Amino acid sequence: MVLVVFQDINQLSIRLKDKMYVLGINAYHPDSSCCIVKDGKLLAAGEEERFKRIKHWSGFPLESIRYCLQEAGISLKDIDFIGISRNPFIHLNRKLIYLMKNRISASFINSRFDNLLRIRNIKSLLVDNFIFFEKQLSSKVYFIEHHQSHMASAFFVSGFKDSAILSIDAMGDFVSTMFGIGKDNKIKVLDRIFFPNSLGYLYTAGTQFLGFLKFGDEYKVMGLSAYGKPVYLNEFKKIIILKKDGKFILNPEYFNFSSEGLGMNWDNSEPVCGRLFSKKWIEIFGQPRDPQEEISQIHRNIAASLQAMLEETYFHILNYLYKVTKIDNLCLAGGVALNCVANGKIFKNTPFKNIYIQPAANDAGTALGAAYYVYHQILNKPRCFVMSHAYWGPEFKKEEIESILRKYNLVFTKYNEDELVKIVAKYIAEGKIIGWFQGRMEWGPRALGNRSILVDPRKKDMIDRLNLFIKHRESFRPFAPSILEENISDYLITPVSSFFMLLALPVKKGRISEIPAVVHIDDTARVQTVNKETNCLFFKLIKAFYEITGVPALLNTSFNENEPIVCHPTEAIECFLRTSMDILVIGNYLIKK
Hints:
Elements: H1 9-16, E1 21-26, E2 33-38, E3 41-47, H2 48-52, H3 62-72, E4 81-84, H4 92-102, H5 106-120, H6 122-130, E5 140-143, H7 146-155, E6 162-172, E7 175-183, E8 186-194, H8 199-209, H9 218-224, H10 233-239, E9 240-242, E10 248-250, H11 280-285, H12 297-325, E11 329-333, H13 340-343, H14 346-349, E12 354-356, H15 365-378, H16 398-407, E13 412-414, H17 417-429, E14 434-437, E15 451-455, H18 461-471, E16 480-484, H19 488-491, E17 504-506, H20 509-512, E18 524-526, E19 528-530, H21 536-549, E20 553-558, H22 569-578, E21 583-586, E22 589-592
Parallel strand pairs: 1-4, 4-5, 6-11, 11-12, 14-21, 16-19
Antiparallel strand pairs: 1-2, 2-3, 6-7, 7-8, 9-10, 13-22, 14-15, 15-20, 16-20, 17-18, 21-22
């Protein structure tokens, strides 16, 4: 008999099981999602909205879980650990005090309590949906505080050995903002800002006041802000007050933080948020804009003032964070971290030198953070993964694509890769609108060259064509460029890599006329930098366009029409057929109208 002596319990567990799987889940919260990690490396990530076809879908992410398990080639019983990006047990005293102090209605309390029960019973939900007896699901479940999940989603995949970390959004687990520091495989929370003080809710209240009532419409106000002047900044300083140590408070007179204001539909649907602004806003700004009302200069100025107030608060927090950490690296997460206009000004307004924001910085990313928090913070595993691209969703085989095209009776031509990029680049240079469907779907709200609509950035009239015939969106919203990373110093005043289109950066004056369709009215562009390593095919396409035109960039917008970004080839085909797109490219297959 051979006696094997193990040094410790961790070594024993490694010998007993070669692979460790961690599932991360964001459930019953906006942007419900799932991801799967194998031995510290991400295998797949999906947002439920792409499968359900409802924007920001909130509920149990059943299809995302199924996709992640399928991509990993395992079943649910093979999962060792599950991280849930909510902790129903945390900050209970604060929650109870707030409820009693503000006399919140019983119906509102019941809805929140029901939501927390669903989170608490997530293991039973998994068992019910995947037809297991509970004893067969031996996975250990961890409930990770919402903002710690956000922070983990950025730092643990950033590649930074150490970093300051800021998570900032509307609210999760009764917290709106969390400051922290990351070193090696651990995160330390430095401070929290609790509800109702929330920069995210301030921006949402302003978004609602300006007549944009859909959940997630804040990006519209960000685009509109460039058309106005911050003439109401002093008025906003009465609504949000900056304090020492990076803190701030909201003036409660200006908010409807009641059962109406925080009413949220969480259950298997598009989230719906009740009205947040109080009548005090009307005293300052006049009547709220009706969604059908034309946008006036007053509305533009309110948007500009709201954006300016967000930026002032943002930099107030970040400068304090740098003061206490003295680290040049910064990781950002949370809904506010999607404000690319503010992000692009961080280098100028704070001492930070390096910024990392993972592509799903919104609540979808908390699934990623929950999984990595479990793997590093709880299990103490070393870091071994850097997220340098966003392509973690489903992809489809050539045979499957061709079969679907034939079902639609579409006439198609098949090309090899080198032929494909040359002919598509030529069509773009001729002014054609291209639907571009390739490889694995993007993770996060930005189309980054795999589920994109592509056009020539040299032609400003392409903006009107896209808005009128395909996107059907407001004229003030900018389109973004995808540019070869090797050429960014030729076009950008601040030539930093931005793989995930989360920084709006100033364009050099002499270059604006070359790419007018992708430069906003404030002379910035929400740029995606593209290199051969992260997306070889997209790189080749832009390179081919560069060789024809002398411009190393394409206008890149999401492949959709007032819906979530297309996921499956059938969705791409149907979007192509009902809009005025000229050409559809799926894999190596090209279809003309």
